[in-house]
Amino acid sequence: MEPHRGTLNVATKPAKEAGLDNQICDLKNDELAELQAVTSEMVRLMETAAVPILAVDGNGLVNGWNQKVAELTGLRIDEAIGRHIITLVKESSIPIVQRMLYLALQGREEKEVRFEVKTHGSKRDDGPIILIVNACSSRDLHDHVVGVCFVAQDMTVHKLVMDKFTRVEGDYKAIVHNPNPLIPPIFGVDQFGWCSEWNAAMTKLTGWHRDEVIDKMLLGKVFDSSNASCLLKNKNAFVRLCIVINSALAGEEAEKAPFGFFDRNGKYIESLLSVNRKENEDGAIAGVFCFIHVPSDELQHALHVQQASEQTAVKKLKAFSYMRYAINKPLSGMLYSRGALKSTGLNEEQMRHVHVADSCHHQLNKILADLDQDNITHKSSCLDLEMAEFLWQDVVVAAVSQSLIACKGKGIRVSCNFPERFMKQKLYGDSIRVQQILSDFLFIAVKFSPVGGSVEISSKLTKNSVGENLHLIDMELRIKHQGIGVPAEILSQMYEEDSKEQSEEGMSLLVSRNLLRLMNGDVHHLREAGMSTFILTAELASAPPASGQ
User: Fold this and answer.
1) Which of 59, 186, 291, 348 has the fewest CB atoms within 10 Å, i.e. is most exposed?
2) Quick one: fold of 383-542?
């Protein structure tokens, strides 16, 4: 019976073991399926994650490289898989990654470790990617560590911003605390109202050292109308300073404001205060910088000289106004005398001289009226033109008469080469302005002609009909004189409205040129061998002669 039992026992044992093995296999299959599902989900999350994620096996070979890290580094997923992680990081980061990998494979997961990853392809010139990484140990079914997953945060842009901010911060400190005398007095206040800056120039100006004011309340301890380092004149001055500082801290733009205080020795300092916001790396207001502008001794001297010059100019202007007022009285007397002469039976020659005097009187009145212009030498000044009928002969005679005394003194002969019909031509325009222009250029020509020389005036007319009863006349006048001509510096002043140094002759030519431009004309200067010529152009009008004339 024993053998029978033994046989039974032998036969029964394999059956039980087979059932247990089947149960274990079923269990393992379930766990494996569950593990595969979890792994699949983890892979999907890793691939679609918005942060860089990479994974390595127990030998440090990359077996996971998501799209984000590929995008940042320029290294494609298929290029990264199978490479050792040490070959993908910067040399300076190799010891850090080796330690992190070693500890993670031991099950000790480090957090917030910084290392740099190389860039490739189109990203190579951008420099390394800076990552802040958390290590996660990967385990198998038996809880054995078989790899490491690195979940990272890209800090590259943040690092660049911080480096720039640190660099700017360093630059500003180097400038603020530079002992160079060109650096103005500067003090600062943080967002809480504490004095945060006080440079060497501020110490020199006030007598108060940096360590005596830093970390004290700027408004109340450093500046106040009483019981402060730098005393202000009164409570109103303190309120104005509070408004300027607090407005800047609130983000408002502030203009330069008058600012005065007493230094350590009781000397009152007058200055201008400009306030500028100080921003941190996030763009938030972290305080304000205050620059004090104190005129130097040289600037104060220059300002005094300028003030004295302005006062002198005002006095001259008042004297000039008086002269203008006073001139009108003798001119009125001359006008009365000429009017009386006309009623004394003068002959034609005498009457012509009286008419010349009348024309010169009108010209002088025009010039005196021009003094109301702010800048008569500028082309935009409102010099007015009249439109009236006149004889060309009257204009020429009046203009030439103004140079005859100068011609007589130098023995210069003036000749007018105009066609007789033109001299009798009736024109429309501003005869007094044309007379002023002609007399100015003629006088300059005589002045710069040699003794015993000659001046010749000629003209060229072109008529253009604009209707049955009106012609436009393009007039060209040439004033030719002997000698080397007008100096170049005077001629240049005729074309430079804002010339700092302007002679009387240059100003006269400039005003006359502006008048010609109002008449749609201009002036040119021509130098020839032993001769110089002014060429004047202007546009006038004329009416055709009546039938039968």
Assistant:
1) 348
2) Heat Shock Protein 90 (3.30.565)
